[in-house]
């Protein structure tokens, strides 16, 4: 409260100062309403006008003619200060509300834990009493039995209402009581900036996860969103409500059939037949609870049902309570029995892990709600002018298309083909009549082929693998195949690769579109640069654009799945663009003794990447003590690539698909060995990233070279400053600092945060941008005229000018400074020229 009072007092003082100015007699005079209105108009356009702009304002606006330019400057300073104070006051209010709500949640969690402790103490005392009691005759009466659910008639309304009330009681005991022994989810610590509090079951039948958090949406809105499970649960294939009728207390009962995707090609998918009960409690809370019903229930035809294994949902659901001051507190419980007996032993940890359920369902639900809340408040900004709902739809379509390809359901039109010599790759085909799910404009195609494989990886961190595949596409992808996939989605544009020969430069530019609140998922456009080799099209660009989502690149996320899914898209980026996704999915699995070879010896088609390599040390010699924990880590990699084809090219495309996926697998083999933390050296093509030893060294060279040439410090370092602090100071420097290579075609190799913001790019995409690309014609001329001076004396000052960002936006700068960066050795006598550095002063977007 004291912080709020100080902020409000400061705002009042600033407002008083803004309303007055000194006249010619040195007395304070209040601004008139017309003067304030004129100043506010200018402020809305430019909060920080230059001296020339302020003088122009006085000349053009007669009502400001009697005010000194210095007073105008002071007014704008006070106005900016008032805006800053308002934002700070709003931020403090928001933090205060979050802390109050989080404190309430923690107090409730503490009460629940105290009850659990009391219950355990009572059970402990009872067990001690039983152990000290001599029982001469052990009868059945002494056996403690767990009460079983009495049979209910699920075919009558009365029976369903009874099941609903029982489900409600069980769910509430899990959400706020001690029915399940909950432990904190590893790596998910609660706090004011966290999404929520997460826990997983320690000892219970099935797998269970629990979450609670604060969301700035009303309870009814949250209930509607969570009930629409396909919108946020990526593994939900379909959800259909077969029956709905009102319950006696104002609630509703629904009979729901849901199908879910299998995460790999090695296990059948799951389906659920459940009762869902929605009601309100006496304290104003809303509850949506759900549990499985016995029997086959509704569902697909017997032929379609054979593709699924019926799983069980134990009492689960959502408790949504209105919060003081607006918003809601949500409790989520997911409790499932996924019938792990139906999958190979090596996959069973995926179906027996509460952490996996927490990441896929519980945490995803809460994150999705938080995402929608921030979007509704206008807190998130997305690229290319797209609305958040459109970008979410793109992400969902990419994920769903990839899941469809991996599962290959017969009722979607998929059937397995024979693939010569490819025992390890499954080749499936989908006919034209089912392509309407992708786009109604693809009627000219003969169908879509999918080549897919699943493999076991040893000692490969999933997040690192996906990040490498994303950042180094040229290490595994064939750009000509990407061009073919893009071309076949345009009627009559191409017939087959090679009809229009194209030279690809090997460079990719990643343009971010949006991301989720914790950056666990990123949506982006990838541009692959290419040029036609045909003489008549010599000046035409043959760039290929891919829409891509990347998830799970946080190495600290426990049980999280990592994915890289992409699809060719038209360069104009229409909202209804047809998408045929391909990509990679990597799922970590808990270590389990004795089943390392189960995946290889199973009847399913699978590969073990690392075991087939002939390079590098053996696992016994490569893994020392430091990597003993990694030696037992395993993950499942699923690859699925889709290829549209025209009717007369099915066999050709099938052969190309098998050959291409084999080459991708071979490339991933090399990558898996290179990034394995078992003592094997990283690949020579690794890129420079902040925090790496190479980046720390480069930061020192940049700073030392600047001082050597200009005689002043680029960054101020105290006497106790470490090498890492130099990198941090340069990374956070307000001016845009970029380094480029010394080649005939200089390419950028490093930039600080301001440099990345100026070029609107990432560190990965930066290294595909040449120096000449960022300057306009006048800038290139200025650079050429001063380049000889730069190379001769070691530094040069370039005049103000305009450069271009990767998004095509113009950026102005007052001055640019360039200097040589030397690789300073310890003796300082043999300093080799390493690169060129540029600093753009006072840059801004036009």
Automatic annotation (TrEMBL):
InterPro entries (alphabetical): HD (IPR001356), HD-Zip_III (IPR044830), Homeodomain-like_sf (IPR009057), MEKHLA (IPR013978), START-like_dom_sf (IPR023393), START_lipid-bd_dom (IPR002913)
CDD domains, per database record: bZIP (cd14686), homeodomain (cd00086), START_ArGLABRA2_like (cd08875)
Chain segments carrying region Disordered: 1-22, 610-630
Keyword field contains Coiled coil: yes
Domain spans labelled START: 153-381
MF terms in GO: DNA binding; DNA-binding transcription factor activity; lipid binding
Gene3D superfamilies for this protein: 3.30.530.20, Homeodomain-like
Domain Homeobox: 22-86
GO annotations of cellular component type: nucleus
Biological process terms in GO annotation: cell differentiation
Coiled coil: 92-123
Residue ranges: DNA binding: 24-87
Biased amino acid composition, Basic and acidic residues: 8-22
Entries under Pfam families matching the protein: Homeodomain, MEKHLA, START
Keyword annotations: Coiled coil, Differentiation, DNA-binding, Homeobox, Nucleus, Transcription, Transcription regulation
Signal peptide extent: none
Family: Belongs to the HD-ZIP homeobox family. Class III subfamily.
Xref: PANTHER family: HOMEOBOX DOMAIN-CONTAINING PROTEIN, HOMEOBOX-LEUCINE ZIPPER PROTEIN ATHB-14
Protein name (database record): Homeobox domain-containing protein
Lineage of source species: Eukaryota, Viridiplantae, Streptophyta, Embryophyta, Tracheophyta
């Amino acid at each position: 409260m004291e912080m709020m009072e100080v902020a409000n007092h400061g705002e009042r003082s600033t407002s008083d100062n803004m309303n007055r100015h000194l006249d010619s007699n040195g007395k304070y005079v209040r601004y008139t309403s017309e003067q304030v209105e004129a100043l506010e108009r200018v402020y809305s356009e430019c909060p920080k006008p230059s001296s020339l702009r302020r003088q122009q304002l006085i000349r053009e606006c007669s009502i400001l003619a009697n005010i000194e330019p210095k007073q105008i400057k002071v007014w704008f300073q006070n106005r900016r200060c008032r805006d800053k104070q308002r934002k700070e006051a709003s931020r403090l209010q928001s933090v205060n509300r979050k802390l109050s709500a989080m404190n309430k949640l923690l107090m409730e969690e503490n009460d629940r834990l105290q009850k659990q402790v009391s219950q355990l103490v009572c059970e402990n005392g009872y067990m001690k009493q039983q152990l000290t009691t001599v029982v001469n005759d052990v009868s059945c009466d002494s056996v403690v039995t767990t009460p079983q659910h009495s049979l209910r008639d699920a075919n009558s309304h009365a029976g369903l209402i009874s099941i609903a009330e029982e489900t409600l009681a069980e769910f509430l005991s899990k959400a706020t009581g001690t029915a399940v022994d909950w432990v904190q989810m590893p790596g998910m610590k609660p706090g004011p900036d966290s999404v929520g509090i997460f826990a997983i079951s320690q000892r219970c039948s099935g797998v269970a996860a629990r979450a609670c958090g604060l969301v700035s949406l009303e309870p009814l809105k949250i209930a509607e969103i969570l009930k629409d499970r396909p919108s946020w649960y990526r593994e939900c294939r379909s959800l259909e409500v077969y029956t709905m009728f009102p319950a006696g207390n104002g609630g509703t009962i629904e009979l729901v059939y849901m199908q879910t995707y299998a995460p790999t090609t090695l296990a059948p998918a799951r389906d659920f037949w459940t009762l869902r009960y929605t009601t309100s409690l006496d304290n104003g809370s809303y509850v949506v609870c759900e549990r499985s019903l016995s029997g086959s229930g509704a569902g697909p035809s017997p032929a379609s049902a054979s593709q699924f294994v019926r799983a069980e949902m134990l009492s689960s659901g959502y408790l949504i309570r209105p919060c003081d001051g607006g918003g809601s507190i949500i409790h989520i419980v997911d409790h499932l029995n996924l019938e792990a007996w139906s999958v190979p032993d090596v996959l069973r940890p995926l179906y027996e892990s509460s952490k996996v359920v927490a990441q896929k369902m519980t945490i995803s639900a809460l994150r999705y709600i938080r995402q929608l809340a921030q979007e509704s408040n206008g807190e998130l900004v997305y690229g290319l002018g797209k609305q958040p709902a459109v970008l979410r739809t793109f992400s969902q379509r990419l994920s769903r298309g990839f899941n469809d390809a991996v599962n290959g359901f017969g009722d979607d039109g998929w059937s397995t083909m024979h693939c010569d010599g490819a025992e390890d790759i499954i080749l499936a085909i989908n006919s034209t009549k089912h392509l309407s799910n992708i786009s109604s404009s693809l009627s000219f195609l003969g169908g879509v082929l999918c080549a897919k494989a699943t493999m076991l990886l040893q000692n490969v961190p999933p997040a690192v693998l996906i990040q490498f595949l994303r950042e180094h596409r040229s290490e595994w992808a064939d750009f000509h195949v990407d061009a073919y996939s893009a071309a076949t989605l345009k009627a009559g544009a191409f017939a087959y690769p090679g009809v229009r020969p194209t030279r690809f430069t090997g460079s990719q530019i990643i343009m971010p579109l949006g991301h989720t609140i914790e950056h666990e998922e990123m949506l982006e456009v990838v541009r692959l640069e290419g040029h036609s080799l045909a003489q008549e099209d010599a000046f035409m660009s043959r760039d290929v654009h891919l829409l891509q989502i990347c998830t799970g690149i946080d190495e600290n996320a426990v049980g999280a799945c990592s994915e890289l899914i992409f699809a060719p898209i038209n360069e104009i980026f229409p909202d209804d663009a047809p998408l045929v996704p391909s990509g990679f999915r990597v799922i970590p699995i808990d270590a389990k003794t004795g089943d390392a070879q189960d995946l290889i010896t199973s009847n399913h088609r699978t590969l073990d990447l690392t075991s087939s390599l002939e390079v590098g040390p053996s696992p016994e010699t490569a893994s020392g003590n430091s990597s003993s924990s990694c030696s037992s880590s395993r993950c499942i990699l699923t690859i699925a690539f889709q290829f549209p084809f025209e009717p007369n090219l099915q066999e050709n495309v099938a052969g190309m698909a098998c050959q291409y996926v084999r080459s991708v697998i071979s490339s991933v083999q090399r990558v898996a060995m290179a990034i394995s933390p078992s003592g094997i050296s990283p690949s020579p093509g690794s890129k420079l990233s902040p925090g790496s030893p190479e980046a720390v060294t480069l930061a020192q060279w940049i700073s030392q070279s600047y001082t050597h040439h200009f005689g002043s410090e680029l960054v101020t370092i105290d006497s106790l400053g470490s090498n890492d602090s130099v990198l941090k100071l340069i990374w956070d420097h307000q001016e845009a600092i970029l380094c480029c290579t010394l080649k005939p075609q200089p390419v950028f190799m490093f930039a600080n945060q301001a440099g990345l913001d100026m070029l609107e790019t990432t560190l990965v995409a930066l290294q595909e941008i040449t120096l000449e690309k960022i300057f306009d014609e006048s800038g290139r001329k200025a650079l050429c005229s001063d380049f000889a001076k730069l190379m001769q004396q070691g530094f040069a000052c370039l005049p103000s000018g305009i450069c271009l960002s990767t998004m095509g936006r113009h950026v102005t700068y007052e001055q640019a400074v360039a200097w040589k960066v030397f690789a300073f050795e310890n003796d300082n006598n043999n300093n080799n020229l390493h690169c060129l550095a540029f600093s753009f002063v006072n840059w801004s977007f036009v």
